[in-house]
Amino acid sequence: MRDGTPHTGDFGQRLRDLRTRAGLSQEALSHAAGVSVRALADMERGRTRGPQRRTVQVLAEALGLDAAEAAELESSAAVGRPRPRTATGPAATGTLALPRDIKDFTARGPALARLLELARDTGPDRPGVTVVAGQPGLGKTAFAVHAAHRLAPHFPDGQFALDLHGMDPEPTTPRDALARLLGALGVADAAIPAGTDDRAGLWRSMTGDRRMLLLLDNAVDESQVGPLLPGTGPALTIVTSRHSLAGLESVHRTDLALLRREEAVELLTRIIGPERVRAEAQAARDLADLCGQLPLAVRIAGQRLLGRPHERLSKLVARLAAEGRRLDGLQAGSLRVRAAFALSYRQLTPDARTFLRRAALAAGADFSPETGALLAGLAYDDAVACAEELTDAGLLQSDATAERYRFHDLLRLYAAEQVAIEDGPEIRDAALDRTTRWMLRRATAAALHFDVEHEASPPGGAPDGDPDPDGDPDPDGDPAGREEARAWLEAERAQWLAALRRAHDTGRHRQVLDAAQAMHWFSDLNQHWEQWVEVFQRSADSARLLGSRRDEAIHLNYLAWSYNMCVHDPHNALTAADAALAAARDCGDGLQEGWALGYGAGALHRQGLVPQAQARLRAGADCLASQHSAQARLAELTILNSLGTVLRQAGQPVEALEAHRRSERICRAGIPGRTDELIALYHAVARQQIGNDLAALERWPEAEPPLRQALTAFETAQMPAWAGPARLDLGHVLSALGHPEARATLLAAREDLTALRSPRQAEAAAALSALEEATAAR
Q1: What are phi and psi of 216, to 5 degrees?
Q2: Contacts 24+ apart (CB under 8 A), 670-675
């Protein structure tokens, strides 16, 4: 006894007396000890008669008790705890104590904070349940155990952990799990009911007034977990599972993401020590990336390095950099990334296993169920069902807005291994060939939505021929109209490009030519895609291998365009244009000869060889003027517009205006067999150049209307690669006029050109800066 505080065997009374003597309110003691106010109130009222030893220790420290008083408080708490049972047999499983916490546990602060809020919100009618689900290797169990230890002081009536063996061939049944839980509460074997429902009822009645924490680790499904959840009372249950357990109602969800790179490096630092990480900081970051920021993989890498204290981090980085050896390198003792994936893979249905491993063959960062269906040889609806099953199992991540899925990098490697093991090269190649044929047919059909009447040329591309594909492989599900076609071509860009590569490499050159030919108009709408160089390089090569000099000239012209406009490489553009010119002359194709002269001129102009560029443009215009086809007229329009631009930039705006007026007259006269829509785009190009010519002559008021008309036409046609430069040209004119829209126009132009990675983005930024300086000086 100290200061007259009486000794009593009643824990609640003694705790209240000690708190009163210390002059603390329940709220103050709660804050000092880290124990909730509700838990303290339950103890003092006698509802919690025997709190756990750790809870008593933190209370004693907060109350400032000496060793003797702390021992007395512990003794009074021990009186209220259930007596250890001496029974033997299956139910005699001990207290199901929490597993050991991991001292180097890293990150997850927000998730832990949300669990603490949930713990504080539990009450007699609000038992809390949280489900921690996700892909293998995220550290769900480690997180749940760490959280349970952190939350233990809030649950003085006990903390229990039970492994439900959800990944085993025979998971724990609810009946057996209930027997173990009841045994942990002190129920003798003979008193445990025989049936599952009766056991669940007894479990709920015994936990109804207990402030306890229950960790159910590695659950297989909702039917296994449901009977184990307390029905009432202030308990908190943490459930971990590789499955989403979406059927559990009224539960909190704890979503664990991959670690951020800095968090992965922090975990590595805690395992092997800061000295080694500081000595090889970049190697540590590279190692985190090679582990895909997956906690299990980072831990394995750290444990491996910890067991080899003299091994450099860069050595392990070099080993893991080779994809074929990465999973072999991510093992340390019994810890293996491959084994974690295999547990989930073995539990899948046969179709889902096939879908998962074949999906690893898809190109790009993500894939659609359509691609998965083709690779797996499944019907579309069956593929969607497999994708959903795999998402629920944590083996795929679904896109937040689109019906697309992605792998974790390491899981993709594992799935690709299973292709080699279970399918072999013949089945693998058959799956890729099937997907290639389908993808290129769909890509060709989708791209033709942008080729006006399947016969016309874009202002910047060399037209000829008309691809004659077999049509869309799924007419009932093909993109309807340009918007859907654009969305499909953009979403599946990596996939159809991979299909084009495979078709080229396996000798299906006619299919390559058809697809590339169909793409020439769509490519002009997306000049910022660097992939067009590869597309047209392969199509030109396919034409050469087929022995068609005419096709070779066409696709070499496309290639020259892509070098000029997409990657801004005039040297390779000139090489391609010269090769196209030679091929066109060999086969006597004047149209392709004219295009080749024009593309070569563009490359020469970009290299600063202005006289040579002008000479080629004049030659190209003369070549095309002597021909009478509609295609030649369209090509002549483009060459004249280019000639005028070169003349203006050479300080000859009057001659430039004359060339562009000539181009405009051709547009106004119309071209037989070509739609008004197409001619309007060529007219818009001419109007844009006329506006620039007038600006060069400082005829600013006259320059504004044609530039506005051109911009409106490009925006209406949804051609951002054309609208961005036109907006910049208009911004220059508006600035010269002192127009109030000048700043907004230049800002928008800078954003457009930056998004397009256009070299003119610097010009837009300079124009905007000059305008702001001029405004400030006024």
Answers
A1: -110, 105
A2: 671/630, 671/633, 671/634, 672/630, 673/455, 673/630, 674/452, 674/453, 674/456, 674/630, 674/634, 675/452, 675/453, 675/456
- What helix, strand, coil percent values describe the chain, rounded to 5? 65, 5, 30
pLDDT of residue 32: 82
What does each C-alpha distance from 444 to 454, 473, 516 come to in angstroms? 11, 10, 8
Which phi-psi region, left, alpha or beta, contains residue 597 (left: φ > 0; alpha: ψ -120 to 50)?
alpha
Measured CA to CA, the distance from residue 533 to residue 566 in angstroms comes to: 8
**Residue 215: which of 107, 112, 122, 132 has the closest Cα?**
132
d(Cα 105, Cα 88) in Å, to the nearest integer? 36
CA distance 351 to 87: 47
Nearby residues of 744 by Cβ (< 8 Å), 6 or more positions away: none
Please tell me the predicted confidence (pLDDT) of residue 468: 47
With the C-alpha atoms ordered 739, 744, 746, 748, is the resulting torsion angle positive or negative? negative
Q: Could you report the per-residue pLDDT of 63-79, keeping only the tens digit for each?
A: 999 988 888 888 888 87
Please say if the pLDDT value at position 282 is more than 50: yes
In sign, the C-alpha dihedral spanning 382, 384, 388, 393 is positive
Beta bridge partners of 236: 128, 213
3-state secondary structure of 252: strand
Assess whether pLDDT exceeds 90 at residue 576. Answer: yes
d(CA 453, CA 345): 49
